[in-house]
């Protein structure tokens, strides 16, 4: 009887996970699907599996071009691709050149759909139409120092977002609208929600609250971290 009970319990659990794949760590990640218990784990898993990452983009119809490896040494970019701009997602970058790693691009797709767009509609009453960026690739060390660890930008495993253009025409920038003195302003509230919403999507999230070097942008990268993410 105990064995039958356990078998019934396992069968029930299997059926429940099948109906709710967002909670099942074994199920493929659906970048357009609902958020679940396993979502952060699945996003993190893409950092070490370029093929699985590309399949995640393909499943939701995100068009991209895979680019050949480039660079040397610490600035070697083995995994890089360029995703096509999507007005529907608000994932249109200015400048348009985006040659980041697949995990960064996949995280951008998730972040925009599940965090940025809902926050924009709630705080500002308008969706985001496009993003302003400061770049993905830069062969340099952390904070531009001459020694020390290499930046995730050195392998194009990062992107810096400096502003958001809304569908109603408004333009928000980190420089003008972060507004530490009045963080409850709708614009500042949105920017903080966008930052906070990235914290369990990316490996590292750095904002104007981190240091002066990040006063004008959100740094988002997919550094492989065994303990979760670093978010400031």
Summarize the amount of helix as a percent range: 25-40%
Percent of residues in beta strands: 15-25%
**Strand segment count:** 9
SSE string, helices as H and strands as E = HHHEEEHEEEHHEEE
Task: Summarize the biggest pleated sheet.
Answer: 7 strands, mixed
As for the number of domains, it is: 1
The whole-angstrom Rg is 19 Å
The general outline is: globular
**What structural category arises from helix and sheet content?**
alpha+beta
Q: Count up the helices.
A: 6
For the termini, the CA-CA separation is 53 Å
Low-confidence runs: none
What does this structure look like?
The structure is a single chain. With 232 residues, the chain is an alpha+beta fold. Helices cover 32% and strands 16% of the residues. It has one domain (2-231). The protein has 6 helices and 9 strands, in the order αααβββαβββααβββ. A hairpin with a 4-residue loop joins strand 5 (158-166) and strand 6 (171-173).
Q: What order do the helices and strands come in, and which of them pair?
A:
Elements: H1 2-19, H2 39-45, H3 50-59, E1 64-66, E2 81-83, E3 93-94, H4 102-124, E4 128-135, E5 158-166, E6 171-173, H5 174-177, H6 186-197, E7 204-206, E8 218-221, E9 230-231
Parallel strand pairs: 3-4, 7-9
Antiparallel strand pairs: 1-2, 4-5, 5-6, 5-8, 7-8
Helix pairs in contact: 3-4, 4-6
Protein name: Extensin-like C-terminal domain-containing protein
Organism: Croceicoccus marinus
Pfam family, one: Extensin-like_C
């Amino acid at each position: 009887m105990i064995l039958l009970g356990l078998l019934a319990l396992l069968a029930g659990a299997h059926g429940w996970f099948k109906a709710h794949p967002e909670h099942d760590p074994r199920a493929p990640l659906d970048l357009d699907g609902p958020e679940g218990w396993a979502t952060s784990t699945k996003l993190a898993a893409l950092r070490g599996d370029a093929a699985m990452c590309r399949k995640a983009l393909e499943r939701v119809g995100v068009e991209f071009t895979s680019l050949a490896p480039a660079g040397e040494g610490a600035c070697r970019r083995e995994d890089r691709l360029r995703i096509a701009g999507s007005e529907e997602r608000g994932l249109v970058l200015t400048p348009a050149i985006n040659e980041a790693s697949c995990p960064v691009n996949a995280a951008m797709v998730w972040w925009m759909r599940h965090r940025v767009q809902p926050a924009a509609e709630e705080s500002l009453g308008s969706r985001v139409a496009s993003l302003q960026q400061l770049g993905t690739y830069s062969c340099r060390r952390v904070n531009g120092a001459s020694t020390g660890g290499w930046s995730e930008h050195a392998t194009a495993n990062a992107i810096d977002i400096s502003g958001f253009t809304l569908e109603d025409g408004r333009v928000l920038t980190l420089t003008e609208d972060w507004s530490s003195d009045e963080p409850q302003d709708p614009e500042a509230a949105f920017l903080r929600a966008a930052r906070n919403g990235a914290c369990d999507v990316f490996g590292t999230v750095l904002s104007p609250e981190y240091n002066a070097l990040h006063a004008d942008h959100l740094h988002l990268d997919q550094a492989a971290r065994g303990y979760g993410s670093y978010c400031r």
